[in-house]
């Protein structure tokens, strides 16, 4: 249909095997969990272990015009635009982060952009109301992502995963005018 269209994909659960704790520590610190490797040690987990993960991705695509708004697709972890990010680029936009349909306050979000061959990565945090404000530039590709890391299921069907990561992402390109 004309206007904004939201494409949403939820992946199956996948697994990554860590052979040393330092790689897990780098990953968890980068995603906003600076103490998780310490907790891993306190739990007496081995340095060689599995982590399960699942992706929750959305893309915004416009057809003929930029009218419309984002929708809450009811995924377990989700970014939701509270204002249309493709219109009125001189105004900041609010982006909400929800986990299990509840706001996720004070949580790390990364924003990657590509404009005219120039790549930029920025980090923001959601506020107490679960959103952050951001000015999007014209003619720029964006990837916004955030990760929640929880205890793994430790069940045979999940490779006895010690941790489980949920990844949400949003991709779109702003118009050039």
Short description:
By secondary structure, the chain is mostly beta strands.
Please describe what this structure looks like.
- The chain has 177 residues and is mainly β.
- 10% of the residues lie in helices and 47% in strands.
- The mean pLDDT is 96.
Helix-strand blueprint:
Blueprint: E1 3-10, E2 14-18, H1 21-30, H2 36-42, E3 49-63, E4 77-81, E5 93-99, E6 102-103, E7 108-115, E8 118-125, E9 131-134, E10 141-151, E11 163-173
Parallel strand pairs: 3-11
Antiparallel strand pairs: 1-3, 2-3, 4-5, 5-6, 5-9, 7-8, 7-10, 10-11
Low-confidence stretches: none
Helix content: under 10%
Report the strand count. Answer: 11
Task: Give the helix tally.
Answer: 2
Major sheet: 7 strands, mixed
Oligomer: single chain
Portion of residues in beta strands equals over 45%
Could you tell me how far the N terminus lies from the C terminus, measured between alpha carbons in angstroms?
A: 22 Å
N-to-C SSE string, H for helix and E for strand = EEHHEEEEEEEEE
Query: What is the C-alpha radius of gyration, as a whole number of Å?
Result: 18 Å
Indicate the overall shape: elongated
Overall average pLDDT? 96
Q: Based on helices, strands and strand pairing, what is the structural class?
A: mainly beta
């Amino acid at each position: 249909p004309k206007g904004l269209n939201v494409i949403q994909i939820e992946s199956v659960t996948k697994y990554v095997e860590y052979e040393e704790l330092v790689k897990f520590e780098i990953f968890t610190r980068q995603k906003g969990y600076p103490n998780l490797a310490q907790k891993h040690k306190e739990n007496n987990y081995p340095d060689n272990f599995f982590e399960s993960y699942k992706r929750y991705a959305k893309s915004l695509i416009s057809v003929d015009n930029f009218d419309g708004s984002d929708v809450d697709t009811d995924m377990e972890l989700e970014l939701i635009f509270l204002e249309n990010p493709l219109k009125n680029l001189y105004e900041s936009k609010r982006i909400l982060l929800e986990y299990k349909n509840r706001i996720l306050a004070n949580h790390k979000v990364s924003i990657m952009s590509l404009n005219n061959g120039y790549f930029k990565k920025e980090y923001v945090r959601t506020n107490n109301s679960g959103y952050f404000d951001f000015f999007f530039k014209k003619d720029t590709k964006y990837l916004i992502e955030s990760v929640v890391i929880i205890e793994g299921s430790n069940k045979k069907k999940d490779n006895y995963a010690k941790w489980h990561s949920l990844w949400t992402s949003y991709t779109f390109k702003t118009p050039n005018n």
